[in-house]
Design a protein that fits this description.
This protein is about 40% helix and about 20% strand. It is globular, with a radius of gyration of 20 Å. Helix 1 links the parallel strand 1 (about 20-25) and strand 2. It has two domains: about 5-115 and about 240-310, Bordetella uptake gene, domain 1 (D-Maltodextrin-Binding Protein, domain 2), CATH 3.40.190; about 115-230, D-Maltodextrin-Binding Protein, domain 2 (3-Layer(aba) Sandwich). The longest helix has 22 residues, at about 285-310. It contains eleven helices and eleven strands. Helix 1 (about 30-45) packs across helix 9 (about 250-265) and helix 3 runs parallel beside helix 11 (about 285-310). By secondary structure, the chain is an alpha/beta fold. A six-stranded mixed sheet has the order 2-1-3-10-4-11, sandwiched between helices. Strands 7-6-8-5-9 form a five-stranded mixed sheet.
């Protein structure tokens, strides 16, 4: 039986085999795209109907989110969501074409792609305290690279600066690749980036992670402490969540079926290992867990953006 066939009342019943689209707001090949394709393959098998990935990259996820917000709420168009379009864009874009709070409903929380603060191996900063001490002594002089203005990388760096009461110099790049190049070359003092992006540099002994914005240390990062441990400050745990959303108005039985199947897929041992290889942790939560993470994320970034007077072009 297809997902839509489980809907009650006025919800339409679709023929077996009708395609479900999973809209991914990133170009093919990245970690989130791979996560989406893994989920789509398993979900299609469990539902007995194809689930295809459709990449709609651009505008920090806004293009993809807009497409899903305007889709028919029949469980056939889903969004692989991250904070960019859901909890960050509303505070940076004055006239957003959708309302993240009203136009979507949560289905499942599937992964976390944690953020880190890294320096090159030759850096004089042995730990986070060293970096913050220098930043306090030299306001606006200690630089950190991000993967772009208004990105989770940028805002996480600003969150650290605000929590520590220092002024860091933000240097935005177009993605992690060029930022890491300049980090290793000494053009920037530090970088806020995902553990997946920096881990190869750590393994090659070209970079060091000073701390992770996580509840617990990341084993692959050779004992790097969490930001809470490194600074003694609260509020520096930043879930870089990946979850699935559906258009508002999707029937509850449809959502329940999808949530059940996605949580089961997420908990499969081989999926957990494949996520880990991508630098992601499987989180496997239902609608309530995803809704809670989104609400907390929204509040966090609203505060950081307002306090930092952050704008995007």
């Amino acid at each position: 039986m297809t997902v839509a066939a489980l809907a009650l009342g006025g919800a339409s019943v679709h023929a077996q085999g009708e395609v479900t689209r999973l809209i991914v707001p990133f170009a093919p090949g990245g970690a989130q795209d791979v996560i989406g394709r893994l989920l789509a393959e398993r979900l299609g098998s469990r539902l007995g109907a194809p689930v295809v990935v459709e990449n709609k990259a651009g505008a920090g996820g806004v293009i993809a989110a807009d497409a899903v917000a305007k889709a028919k709420p029949d469980g056939r168009t889903l969004l692989l969501a991250t904070g960019g379009a859901i909890t960050i864009a509303p505070h940076l874009i004055s006239k957003l074409s959708y309302d993240p709070r009203k136009d979507f409903v949560p289905i499942a929380l599937v992964a976390d792609t944690p953020m880190t603060l890294a320096v090159r191996v030759q850096s004089p900063y042995a730990n986070v305290a060293d970096l913050l001490k220098d930043a306090k002594a030299n306001p606006g002089k200690v630089s950190f690279a991000s993967t772009g203005n208004g990105t989770i990388s940028h805002l996480t760096g600003e969150l650290l600066a605000q929590a520590a009461g220092v002024q860091l110099l933000h240097v935005p790049y177009r993605g992690a690749g060029p930022a890491i190049t300049d980090l290793l070359g000494g053009q920037v003092a530090a970088m806020v980036t995902s553990s997946a992006s920096i881990e190869p540099m750590v393994l090659d002994k070209k970079a060091r992670v000073l701390g992770s914005f996580t509840k617990a240390p990341i084993a692959a990062l050779h004992g790097a402490p969490t930001m809470g441990e490194a600074t003694g400050l609260k509020g520096l745990t930043v879930p870089v969540w990946v979850g699935l959303l559906a258009p508002a108005g999707t029937a509850k039985p449809v959502l329940d079926k999808l949530a059940t199947e996605l949580q089961a897929i997420c908990a499969q041992p081989d999926i957990i290992e494949r996520f880990k290889a991508l630098g992601a942790a499987a989180t496997c939560g239902g609608p309530a867990e995803l809704g809670k993470v989104i609400a907390e994320d929204d509040k966090r970034w609203e505060g950081v953006i307002r306090q930092g007077k952050i704008q995007v072009n």
